[in-house]
Amino acid sequence: MKNYSIILLAAALSSCTSIRRHNEQRTACVSPDELREDIDYAYQKLQQMHPQLYWYISKKELDHKFDSLKQTIDQPLTPLQFYFKLQPVIADIREGHLSLRIPRKKFTRREIKTLEQKKGMFSRFEYYIKDNQLFIIENKDSIENIKPGTEVLSINNIPVSVYIKKYRELISSDGYNTTFQSYFLKDVFFNFYTAENGFTDTANIETLYHGEKKTYTLYREDKSKKDLAKDKEQEKRTVEKKINDYVASSNSYNRNFKFLDKDSTTAYIKVQSFSRDYSDKFYKETFSKIKNAGAKYLVIDVRNNYGGSLHEINNLYSYLASEPYVLIKPSQLTSRLTPLKTNYFRKSNAFQYAFKSLAYPTYVFAQTFSTYKKDGKVYYKMKADKATKPDKNAFQGKVFVLINGGSFSASSIITAKLKYDKRATLVGEETGGANDGTVAGFYSYQKLPHSKINLPIGLLLVQPNIDFLNTKKGVAPDVTIKETMQDIINRKDPQLDWVKKEIAREQAHQ
């Protein structure tokens, strides 16, 4: 027991030292020569590992962008400053999954615990971005009685439009899609902001509402005993929370199911993320209820769903298909060695490292035999590229799918397949993810040698099993209906309302 305590103490001290070194390195300047070496390193790794690097940009154009960037590096920069120079070039590749990790400050356990005792400052609002404007659309705690629809003009005297223009350059969707940025930027805006400005305890915001300007001071308040008790209660994992994949941070369920009418004619499934957690059980129980109720219509809502598990969308599709199907085409990678570059020991503590070391030969064996070569190209074996039978409780009625610019990655894969197979009517706006697939799957986490910035590189080309459109854009809806900021504030849902009216119209003619 004494030896165990010594090991834990040593691990804690090592962790603190690591955090201190990380934070010191984050604020130290890196020489221009070393930064240029980092640029070359990043491009070299992308060329080695990314299976479709020149999908949306030519090699000549990308070569020019990296060369031009190197010419601008003429003075030492901190890793954060360097990030804001390199990431826009990475974003120009137009692969939504491809992005440098912003070099953030790390916190000790004590600092994290202190932050957990406080309420958020900016996170207590919900936001909407239009062009270069930031609006508050929900004030969860009625802070200063700020009304939904209020525009935030500046933060600590710096115009919000300056931040939006700067951060917009850091984000790309797949290809030439135009709907994704505003959805994603509203969610990550303050991630970028706090990375630049730190976690302060106060902030002054200038606002505009109905022509009247006001200035407010926001505070990072201490949580009350009631708040802390609520946090503790939310962390408890009941059976319901597990199956519906409860998300404590937002006090919401990842998956929701209900009937939209009293006679259970129309079923509704909302999936906020294809997390896979308990998804098999959720769909099994849900589609059993739908079948027993004799529902004739099904609405699947994947708006603002950034994607996730291929296993989950393949399983979901099995409840929608009437005959055996293949969800995706064989997934291509750059070489047979690529699967071994996935940083097997990444984020392992001493105990995990020891256990993984014992299992490493098995891992290498499995990955080595997970690839195959065909027609001069290398592919990775995936269950989703094999024929899958429909589930016995597969839904046979009419399907509507709600999509928007926040439907990305796996959400775009399944909606592209549903549209191609004419299995669903898509309602909303163009998805944020590409119609013809994306590069993701699993990642190789590269660390730039001098700035120490992390660059995760997707290793698999994942494409739906369809005839490609080559539009270089997202999945287009069959029925285009936009949602306005006022719709959100008034809790109106014009896209779902259209589906309800269409169902009522069909039933009236039966």
Automatic annotation (TrEMBL):
Domain of life: Bacteria
One Pfam family matching this protein: Peptidase_S41
Gene3D superfamilies assigned: 2-enoyl-CoA Hydratase, Chain A, domain 1
The Tail specific protease domain, residue ranges: 236-482
SUPFAM superfamilies reported in the protein's UniProt record: ClpP/crotonase (SSF52096)
Protein name: S41 family peptidase
Biological source species: Chryseobacterium endalhagicum
